[in-house]
Amino acid sequence: TLTWCEPDEDGGSPITGYWVERLDPETGKWIRCNKIPIKDTAFRVKGLANKKKYKFRVLAENLAGPGKPSKETEPILVKDPIDPPWPPGKPIVKDVAKTSAFLQWTKPEHDGGAKIESYVLELLKTGTDEWVRVADGIPSTEHFLKGLMEKQEYSFRVRAVNKAGESEPSEPSDPVLFKERLFPPSPPRWLEVINVTKNTADLKWSPPEKDGGSPITNYIVEKRDVRRKGWQTVDTTVKETKCTVTPLSEGSLYVFRVAAENAVGQSDYCEIEDSVLAKDTFTTPGPPYALAVVDVTKSHVDLKWEAPKNDGGRPILRYVIEKKEKLGTRWVKAGKTSGPDCHFKVTDVIEGTDVQFQVRAENEAGVGHPSEPTDMLTIEDAKGPPSPPLELHVTDASRRHISIAWKPPANNGGSPIIGYH
User: Fold this and answer.
1) Which residues of 94-107 are buried (b: 16+ CB within 10 A; e: fewer)?
2) pTM of the model
3) How far apart are CA 150 and CA 180, in angstroms?
4) 400-421, pLDDT tens digit by residue?
5) Cα separation of 172 and 151, whole Å?
6) CA dist 43 to 4, 33, 34, 337, Å?
7) Angle at 69 between CA 65 and CA 72, to 5 degrees
8) Is beta strand 118-125 parallel, antiparallel or unpaired with respect to 76-78?
């Protein structure tokens, strides 16, 4: 489809139409594409050959006849609106023998707009960097490959082919050593539960004694509620010799098992001997301490405190601040911190009321016991400086030092005492 702009000059007569011409790539001659003048400034050219390049130009016409042609376009390749496919899935190598193997893969996620016609198989000899095409025209997503060298390690990759061409290569397979027929690995060993909560269990185990002649690629972890017969898959792609199993139902008994997998297949399972109860092995935190009022105004109260000496076995997540008015009978929530910071500005206050505060710490097990409460204080702006401290006296003296002590002032001026000079 071509578009263009009207000429700057019409030659003294209105434009009556346009002629579109194409340059024939074989004869080198300009050929008209429309049989009658085009009234619009756009035209869809039909009847072009696929996978050939063309140039185009336009001539305007008035009552005096056609004018000079426009500047010609760059060469345009005419082709179907399709692309090569996306790469196929990573090949899996099975039934490895001395000189042969069976390979499987998944089809591309996108076919590029045209049917996948076939696949191409390539191999890489370990220690080299040249991929060699060993089979093409493969009609399905599997292939039995023969003629490989014994005691040689290879990787494989696949390309998909459609009408537009070949895809990029797939992710290479894991390297496979070709020798006497390989086997699935023996089961993992020494499976144990190293930690349990009400909804998770941490497992660890040791690798199989024998890998079957092919490296372990992954582990398969399953769980079973002892009240049920069926096993449930937790994860089939575990790479390490540990796994956190979730979710569990609090109060239920579970058993677990793990299998290893290599390029040939899956091992038998290693199953834990005793069932495990899903419950927390930690508790709520102890009470925060040293709760103090830093500042009081008619609109807020600033508090600070120290973290509990016992976190209950899990990190402190946040703190919950509670308040109780002078005439109230119960503590109510006044706010919570966004993290484990030991300070908070309480804005849920009413001017003129008498109120006191306490703080609780929260971890994964829940909210713990409260701190010692603050003294009752009045929600108001400070009215003035405090009265003088009382009963100043010397407690100890020598040639090099003197120690003094005193009691707080009788009147704090309407705001907590924050220090002494």
Assistant:
1) bebeeeebebebeb
2) 0.37
3) 8
4) 999 999 998 877 776 778 889 9
5) 20
6) 9, 9, 9, 68
7) 160
8) unpaired
